[in-house]
Amino acid sequence: MAQLLRQAIRRLVRAIQRGQLLNAEAHLVTTGIYRSVRHPIYLGWCLVASGIALLTGSSLALTDTALTAACYRARARYEERLLSARYPDYAEYLRSSSRLFPACTEPT
In sequence order, what are the residues at sequence separation of 6 or more whose Cβ sits closer than 8 angstroms to the Cβ of residue 24? Predict the structure, then answer.
């Protein structure tokens, strides 16, 4: 399991270093689920990991969940720095949405 985690982290780091995060023709999407959450896919994977941990009752799965969430949080922060530099409207979007978990109230 530890070896698998190390491989996953290495692949994530390589993808970030290669700049595979931004497409030249991409545009900023702030509608639909992105209105409330900036990284809904990361949220989904965190929820999957949490569900597995709950179903198995395994402390190893719980540890994996925490590591998964930490890795996605770090990647999200990195991506947000890139997106802030690319899109002038991103600062407003940061104020009106949540990174991973939707707020209990409507964004203003």
Answer: none
> What are the tokens at 17?
């270093």
Between the CA of residue 25 and those of 74, 83, 90, 100, what are the distances in Å?
25, 13, 16, 25
Sort residue 39 into left (φ over 0), alpha (ψ -120 to 50) or beta. Answer: beta
* pLDDT 10s digits, 55-67: 999 899 999 999 9
Distances (CA, A) of 93 to 19, 40, 96: 22, 15, 5
What are the sequence ranges of the domains in the chain?
Answer: 40-98
CA gap 18, 54 in Å, rounded? 35
pTM of the predicted protein model: 0.69
